[in-house]
């Protein structure tokens, strides 16, 4: 199809702070008007400037000769702004002289995978890939994730692209906004290729049986995101019954629940679907399918620490003694399970899926074997899968276990999975409280919120050192982590926002409150810190 020209309607251009659109290793903004106090920041001109910034970055990175045009694949989730942004990105990439291949509705992992697939018949590999998504954020948001065959772009790359975009946008302001593209844009059903690979992986694990999940009843909840394909394109070809699956149709208004495996309403929905349909297993994805969780036949949630424990058990069977890299808010019970029960090593690192993946890659590079990098959020990546952050592949690993167990006569149903996490100590109380920093408060004394937050953490660390009831973690990469009263707390600075999240886990509410009191007493002199959530938690 021919890419439409945007030169016919020239919008008025406002000045834009492009770096404010950075969200770690992603770009995120408001793409749809209608929410009070949230003006649109991802306009078509801004989107085209970002796309042009990526094109320039990619041309510098790949350094190909003039005889070959670079190829960029573009996909999107179910958001209502997806088509508009896809068109804008396609126009600008094509006008920069690159070939554009649109995948339409796709998953984030599939976009990375397209840079690895080698098949010219489907225009692969892509030199670069763009996923248009804002994960589980509300309907009015959207954003971009970028990939090459080296993986997802990191923070520095995103900053570079946004700086280039700002310069390009300045030219729009100075010379007038006009992007024309007459080059053709090709369309490919890449998701058919990606799902076929997932099906092959399960068949292989079961000894090349055509329908290794025949008779298994597995329900899927896609939350009206991009993950609805998993029922019909992965489970059913493997023989599974998928009746009772819900919210498979893409709907960018997300009318049923937030597509988020950490959301209580979302987990309640998939749990209810499992119980109502007497299913063997339930599977739930986030909007762009890079996160996932499961529910067993009894309604037990296999997410957060429990999903990490389950994946660790599977990976450590395959790679005894390997290091499991996680984010910073994993429980002490998980550490004990990985190290004492499974014989592995738990390397608790920082929040942020890219941080966790990059740390696992770094450990391997210095001779410490690691095969799994996984966050409590449901982000997980395996060395065997190119460190691709893929919620669907995590679920395939669970399906492999079900299929291979039945093929070898070792058991049927999700009890095979539940038995793998037997002995995992889970806390009676687990809370996250958000302590916001008021950036307009005089107590900041001209400091950035980051500097102020670091001062809070420094003071907390010093006060804990002299408290005999509490013990700071000997090895810790983020914030202040402390054990006491049979539990632990972690106070850290948010990756992007003026917030200090406080995680507390304890064997009882009373013990959790004791830990909360210790934090409250230590930070009370910081007047710009809104401790109302903590105060409410500890009050009698």
TrEMBL record:
Q: Which residue range or ranges hold the Alpha-D-phosphohexomutase alpha/beta/alpha domain?
A: 24-166, 197-299, 306-405
User: Which InterPro entries did the record assign?
Assistant: A-D-PHexomutase_a/b/a-I, A-D-PHexomutase_a/b/a-I/II/III, A-D-PHexomutase_a/b/a-II, A-D-PHexomutase_a/b/a-III, A-D-PHexomutase_C_sf, Alpha-D-phosphohexomutase_SF, Phosphoglucosamine_mutase
Spell out the reaction equation it catalyses: alpha-D-glucose 1-phosphate = alpha-D-glucose 6-phosphate; alpha-D-glucose 1,6-bisphosphate + L-seryl-[protein] = O-phospho-L-seryl-[protein] + alpha-D-glucose 6-phosphate; O-phospho-L-seryl-[protein] + alpha-D-glucose 1-phosphate = alpha-D-glucose 1,6-bisphosphate + L-seryl-[protein]
Q: Which residues form a coiled coil?
A: none
Domain of life the protein comes from: Eukaryota
Q: What is its EC number?
A: 5.4.2.2
Mention any one GO cellular component term assigned to this protein in its UniProt record: chloroplast stroma
Which keywords describe this protein according to UniProt?
Answer: Carbohydrate metabolism, Glucose metabolism, Isomerase, Magnesium, Metal-binding, Phosphoprotein
GO BP term, pick one: glucose metabolic process
The top EC class, named as a word, is isomerase
What cofactor(s) does the depicted protein rely on?
Answer: Mg(2+)
On assembly, the entry states: Monomer.
Which family is this sequence assigned to? Belongs to the phosphohexose mutase family.
Q: What is this protein called?
A: phosphoglucomutase (alpha-D-glucose-1,6-bisphosphate-dependent)
